[in-house]
Amino acid sequence: MTAIDFDSAAGAPPTVARYVVASRTPPRLTETVAVAEKVREALQSLSDGAEVFSGKSGRGKPLAGHGHAFVLCAADAQRGRLRHVTVYAAMGFDDPARQALARLARVWGFGGDELHLVLAGIGRPEDFAGRDVAAGKSPLLDSSRVWVSHTPFVPTRFAKATHPGEPKLDGRGLQIGCPEHDLRRLIADRFPDPVGVAPLRETLLGGKRTPWSAFHTRRRRGGGRRSTAAGYGFRVEFGEPVRGPIAVGYGAHFGLGTFTPEDGYALS
């Protein structure tokens, strides 16, 4: 993939940095949350704690909304091991943040091995979006009407019930706070309401059916609201194409709850 150089004089700041994983034996996609934590820590260190990477103001208060950085991992279809790491932040990267992104080349902590990263470019989602993974494109940043789980969704709320133990239902007949209900609520905060949601029991990694329970779903550091350690997969259909990235739920800024277009299901 030819590196994309962002022109700071062209207008709005860039929101995407795309890396190729150059390690001989990269971690599997199931290690997404650990990899993302290491990348976020490295970027915070390289930027002296820039808000876009820390998610906190200079006074240590969490930023409102989801404009700060998401670290999204994607695996190759053949081995199920990491092929790309994408850092996305809707608030954009200023000059110091871009300098930190350019300096990021490796992170430590995976069985004593280094994870080597090569910056492919910094730009906008449309610069990298596409289905042609071999050419360095990212389905995670593309547009699609139907999306499926790439990494497990971890709910942030508990299912609600009445005092006698009967489920509390919403207008669709879903138990309030159940995984599907929580997913719909979180998607609707930033995207159109889905016209259909269906569960997926597993994903494909390296050509093998892999249950969501094979993924690590707990951050090593930090908080974040979660209702369970279990992860869930879903197929989400919208009434019209929606541009990614779509990442929701606990650990979404660390690669969990990430979705990919259905026709890019075996891609990354």
What descriptors fit this protein?
single chain, 268 residues, alpha+beta, globular
Textual characterization of the structure:
This protein is α+β, with helices and mostly antiparallel strands and 268 residues long. The protein has one domain. The chain has helices spanning 32-46, 51-54, 95-103, 125-128, 179-190, and strands spanning 16-21, 70-75, 82-88, 106-110, 113-123, 143-149, 196-200, 202-205, 208-211, 233-243, 259-261. The strands form three sheets. Strands 2-3-1-5-4 form a five-stranded antiparallel sheet. A hairpin with a 2-residue loop joins strand 8 and strand 9 (208-211). The protein is globular, with a radius of gyration of 18 Å.
The radius of gyration computed from the alpha-carbon positions, rounded to a whole number of angstroms, is: 18 Å
* Major β-sheet profile: 5 strands, antiparallel
Instruction: Average the pLDDT over all residues and give the rounded result.
Output: 87
End-to-end distance? 14 Å
The sequence of SSEs as H and E is: EHHEEHEEHEHEEEEE
Strand content: 25-35%
What low-confidence regions span 5 or more consecutive residues with pLDDT below 50?
none
Which bin fits the share of residues in helices?
A: 10-25%
Number of helices: 5
Number of strands: 11
Strand order of the largest sheet: 2-3-1-5-4
Estimate nothing, just give the exact number of structural domains: 1
- The best one-word shape is globular
Structural class: alpha+beta
Write down the oligomeric state.
single chain
